[in-house]
Every structure is written in C-alpha cells, then in structure tokens.
Amino acid sequence: MTDKTTFAVNDMTCNHCVGTVRQALEQALPGADITVDLATHRVEFTGDRATGEAAIREAGYTPEAG
Questions:
Q1: DSSP assignment, residue 8?
Q2: Helix/strand/coil (H, E, C) string of 15-38?
C-alpha cells in the first residue's frame, strides 16, 4: 500500500470541500496516507486507486488523472 495516486479535483473549491473529500477517502481507505491541497486542487492517497476514485465521486466531486 505504498503506491500513491494523485487526482486533480478542480470542483473542490473551499475548506469544506477539502474536509468532505478527506473524510470520504478516510472511510473508503482506512489507514491510507492522504494529502488534500486546496490551492492546487490536488488529492494524493495511498491504497487502491479505484476505491479512492469512487469515494471522491460518491462525495460529489470529479477526480481527474493528475
């Protein structure tokens, strides 16, 4: 579980969005290393890419390959 996935999440526009995305990833990928950067709209996490992508989408955001 050391591979990092990076997505651009351009519809993440505020700190509330950051919290929502982080919480979705924490629930989907317990123990994952998660970094959410609002300034660059980048989300990085360890763990299964497809699971993380699905969690971000289910939270209402649009992850794009970054």
A1: E
A2: HHHHHHHHHHHHHHCCCCCEEEEC
